[in-house]
Specification:
With 277 residues, this protein is of the alpha/beta class. It has 2 domains: 176 residues, 3-Layer(aba) Sandwich (Rossmann fold), CATH 3.40.50; 83 residues, Pantoate-beta-alanine ligase, C-terminal domain (Pantoate--beta-alanine Ligase, Chain: A,domain 2, 2-Layer Sandwich). It is built from 8 helices and 9 strands. A 6-stranded parallel β-sheet has the order 1-4-3-2-5-6, sandwiched between helices. Helix 6 links the parallel strand 5 and strand 6. Helix 5 packs across helix 6 and helix 7 runs antiparallel to helix 8. The chain starts with a strand and ends with a strand. The structure holds pantoate.
């Protein structure tokens, strides 16, 4: 496996399957890389698998954890290689944003409705999807992949990227993989390392709440069951909702494909999770 830092060194890997990450790779990311390998090998001449590692300053608000975001580059490269990556692309900020991160976003980048309307992640983190769309578009410009794999753990992000690619008519197929969970149900996240043991226990309330939502028979019942479980575990709720699985807008009944989504703080850590209902 190669490690490259510049877009110029990526030329031989164009047309491959890309897994964009911010590093601190855990089993969730590894499932994305394995999926990318499978997709790449399904072609008569196997395509290259490109893992990008870039902690994107544009998607962190001031006061968020950009500076202390876990950085484990060497271990990440070993893991990426063991899952079949051909190259790790780890650009510097100046390579991704030659005009500087403070420069205005490329006006071609579309921030789709699903990133602006539902009142979920974008409500507490107004810059987040602008930063995500900006970096994913830029990474695609440099990696020129045929396909890219994202996790369902960041469900609104996945829908946002799908919509951006569709609305901008970018020639990239967006693939997704289910959330990988610890044995007790906690969704894997690079931020779980911030949880002290008692908080780690309380964090289980997120997946328990989502499971309760799945067995409810109405939206109202599901949302109230989620809130009680989260509150009983002192999770400071940001949202605990059941929404249309495609638009993430509110729904009245569970007739259409729906998604339960939760976000909240456990101690200093903001966690999110979601499940189909
Ligand atoms: O999900 C992530 O790790 C990031 O938001 C992404 C998609 C790599 C963009 O920085």
């Amino acid at each position: 496996m190669q490690i490259v830092w510049t877009a110029a060194d990526l030329e031989e890997f164009h047309g491959g399957v890309c897994v964009p990450t911010m590093g601190a790779l855990h089993e969730g990311h590894l499932s994305l890389i394995r999926r990318a390998r499978e997709e790449a090998d399904a072609h008569a001449a196997p395509l290259p698998v490109v893992v990008t590692i870039f902690v994107n300053p544009a998607q962190f608000a001031p006061g968020e954890d950009f500076a202390r975001y876990p950085r484990t580059f060497e271990a990440d490269c070993t893991r990426a290689e063991s899952c079949g990556a051909d190259v790790v692309f780890a650009p510097e900020v100046g390579e991704v944003y030659p005009q500087g991160v403070e420069a205005p976003i490329d006006p071609r980048v579309v921030i789709p409705e699903v990133a602006r309307q539902p009142g979920l992640e974008e409500k507490s983190r107004p810059q987040f999807f602008i930063g995500v769309c900006r970096v994913v578009h830029r990474l695609f410009e440099m990696v020129k992949p045929r396909a890219a794999v994202f996790g369902e753990k960041d469900y609104q992000q996945l829908l946002t990227i799908r919509a951006m690619v569709r609305e901008m008519a970018l020639p990239v197929e967006i693939l997704s993989e289910p959330t990988v969970r610890e044995e007790d149900g906690l969704a894997m996240s690079s931020r779980n390392v911030y949880l002290a043991p008692p908080q780690r226990k309380r964090a289980l309330a997120l997946s328990k709440a989502l499971k309760a939502a799945r067995s409810a028979s109405s939206v109202a019942e599901a949302e109230s069951a989620m809130r009680s479980i989260l509150l009983a575990n002192q999770v400071e709720i940001d949202y605990a909702v059941v929404r249309d699985a495609h638009t993430l807008m509110p729904i009245e009944s569970l007739a259409l494909p729906a998604r339960a989504l939760v976000a909240g703080r456990v101690g200093p850590v903001r966690l999110i999770d979601n499940m189909a209902v």
